[in-house]
Amino acid sequence: MNVPAYNFAYLNEQTKRMIRRAILKAIAVPGYQAPFASREMPMPYGWGTGGVQVTASVLTPEDTLKVIDQGADDTTNAVSIRKFFVRTAGVATTGKTEEASVIQTRHRIPETPLTEDQILVFQVPIPEPLRFLEPRETETRTMHALEEYGVMHVKLYEDIAQYGEIATTYAYPARVAERYVFDPSPIPKFDNPKLDDCPALQLFGAGREKRIYAVPPYTSVRSLDFEDHPFEVQRWDQPCALCGTRESFLDEIVMDDRGTRMFVCSDTDFCARNRGER
Amino acid sequence: MYVAVKGGEQAIDAAHRLLDEERRGDRSVPSVTLEQIAGQLTLAVDRVMNEGSLYDRELAALAIKQARGDLIEAIFLIRAARTTLARFGYAEPLDTRAMRVKRRVSAAFKDIPGGQILGPTFDYTHRLLDFSLAGDYEPPEAARAPGALRSDMPRVLEMLGSEGLMEQPSQEAREPADLTQDPLDFPAGRDLRLQNLARGDEGFLLALAYSTQRGYGRTHPFAGEIRLGTVEVSFTPEELGFPIVIGAIAVTECEMINQFKGSATVKPQFTRGYGLGFGQCERKAMSMALVDRALRAGELGEERGAPAQDEEFVLSHSDNVQATGFVEHLKLPHYVDFQSELVLLRRLRAGTEAAKHRLEAAKDRPEAAE
Amino acid sequence: MSPLLAAETLGKFYGARVGCRDVSFDLWPGEVLAIVGESGSGKTTLLRCLSGHIPASSGKVRYRTRDGRMVALDEMSEAERRMLMRTDWGFVHQDARDGLRMGVSAGANVGERMMAVGERHYGRIRAAAVDWLRRVEISEDRIDDSPWSYSGGMRQRLQIARNLVTSPRLVFMDEPTGGLDVSVQARLLDLIRGLVRRLDLAAVVVTHDLAVARLLSSRMMVMQQGQVIEQGLTDQILEDPQAPYTQLLVSSVLQV
Prior knowledge:
The complex is a heterotrimer. By secondary structure, chain A is of the alpha/beta class. Chain A has helices at 13-28, 49-58, 76-89, 137-145, 150-163, 192-195, 268-274; strands at residues 34-35, 64-69, 92-93, 102-106, 119-123, 174-176, 180-182, 201-206, 211-215, 221-223, 250-254, 261-265. In chain A, a hairpin with a 6-residue loop joins strand 11 (250-254) and strand 12. In chain A, helix 1 crosses helix 2 (49-58). The longest helix of chain A has 16 residues, at 13-28. The radius of gyration of chain A is 19 Å and the shape is globular. By secondary structure, chain B is of the alpha+beta class. Chain B folds into 3 domains: 9-82, no CATH class; 96-127 and 149-325, no CATH class; 335-369. Chain B is 41% helix and 13% strand. Chain B has 12 helices and 4 strands, in the order H-H-H-H-H-E-H-H-H-E-E-E-H-H-H-H. A 4-stranded antiparallel sheet of chain B has the order 1-2-3-4. In chain B, a hairpin with a 7-residue loop joins strand 3 and strand 4 (269-278). Chain C is an alpha/beta fold. Chain C folds into 2 domains: 1-88 and 170-256, Rossmann fold (3-Layer(aba) Sandwich); 99-167, no CATH class. Chain C has 10 helices and 10 strands. In chain C, strand 4 (58-64) and strand 5 (70-72) form a beta hairpin. The chains are: A alpha/beta, B alpha+beta, C alpha/beta.
């Protein structure tokens, strides 16, 4: 029986070159969704195959990798992806944001500010911000080409008309470098301001939809809004119950079945550092 | 005091060990062998090779065993293995005319040159549970045809074509598209569509094909010819410059004859739909041919409105590995997004409550003034 | 002064079949032109060519842009053409569902074009939507309702408001009163006539109904089998039709 031997970081070099070309194109045209021949990966579509392919293509043996899901290093899918790279690439891993050279994430941006020496790789389920307004790829492509983004504001208008405020709380669309409207992946809108003018390179991989896009370092990212209903992020009434910070996104923990709640940092590394537990 | 849940890693390991145990089942029963799967669950193996798009009976059997018989999971395993394989190049087009035929039927003509050959088919069996199979029943040897079958079996659609009744397949001389090498792009050519359908989920294609028969994009199909057998695969190595035979594979091919089309200047002709798959996969090949034809609606100037005629809809949703991944990813944690929705919903509800109070207060006031 | 829109020997062919052929005319600012004919006469094909929805097979359509240039539609980029369609032009479909975004509220329908051209102030969009709903006689308290909850006549009025919010100079209408009850038709025609006059709009109205042509247009073209067989001032044609086909049309419809 043919037992396949795996290359460094799983993908063969031919495939990595193809993905790197797409990444370069994505960096050259910030926010543009560069198509790439996404490969089948040994984890299911929708579980981070796009992010894993991007990480596999940018990873070198000297890198230190951090993988988070929902802000935490020890959630099941983060553990699974980290193990995958330990097994196929043998790279060093870390939970500490500032120690990592490559960070793969699902649904969060770390609270600790990123630096020029870091690459943040996002897992993206639906890369097309216009998709739920226009299901056709041929049409959305034209809309991007002609910067026809009025319909995005129609959605925001409807929110305000109906709820009195913009009711999009995650995967909040933004405009990159004043050109392409993009979907920053399902991060909470709390994280949108971190995308803007970020020193780190931010790469977005959508495996099932076969798209890669990028926000190069120090690029403007402006969340869509109205002049009289400006973009706002979530706020909590209380600080993190563990570390006491008021600066971070809080997860709600259900303590018992009598409705007792507690709010703690979703970024577990940030919380541990605040508590001096690292 | 609350302590954040840790230990995802141990939990995963333990879960996987439990999976291994469940897969093994009762240890007093011998483990199923790959030979048994490859030799006796052949149609499952065929489906996994088809939708996994890798012709390797042994790997497919292993995948089925590892997947505990979940064929989509097995297809997924094969796809993930396939993606790592080195690519040497493209084989020459298969010559299915030179197929060593095992089964070959036409629903368009009673008798055809080369004959109707039933072969190993469930058709015409009574679907009664056969309890003899529950034991060690050994069937008697099947009778074989006395002489050899024609090695050059003529095609039914070619016979119609020679009379000008059948549209000719396009003869574009270009490399066919390959969606494993390039991302799917719309509008897709017929080559790309056929590749997508060949890899597509049998159930999805079956339902779409069925919908065309029930009026959602009718094509008036006749099963012109269905043939099953082995064909040689040839490959031209660069250093040789001429094709050499590198092996033989089993395939099922279906050519549908569909409603005719003509105009004032072009004489009417039947149109065609095409299906091909690894191994014995008649349901799949027929469904594929029906959907192929439905997707040609635009090219043939037909009105397009039915799901099976909608290229972006069909091609974007046919792949079961993509579909199962994305549907099942809802199991992954979505704490952060859900938290964001909770925060918003609570605030909106508080806003409504406040508005109600204001309204009631306003209602009370005039009365108080009286 | 030069025309707003000019068609020059315009034709559309589907293989050997003729959609329309050899159509030439000038449309002046503020002028309403009716194109009449039976179904199959080519009037809708002509309208779709004029409005850039389908490419013509021969001839040219030129439009005078706001900076005074006469530009041929087929020489514009896709971006320019789309921009024109959502700013300077309007298109009123026979079936309002084709012209409305049915999934969003009436207010969003009216506001969409403003947002498409860069308006980013919710309050202003909202105010414009209220104003336009009032002008098409839709009560303000229906602003957040879905067009699905609107009657046929209301949908048509909403479609008109949605088109006029960016102050276009030219509106194409395809059987704007088709499929409506007679009483609803009369009210809608009245409204359209009022708006067209007040806003000094130019319009091309396709209709099979000579009464619509008489009420709205100052000039009309009669089409038969893809060709214009008669054109001139509306009153003149209706009073004194020259072509036998027009005579038949006029006698069969207007004397009822």
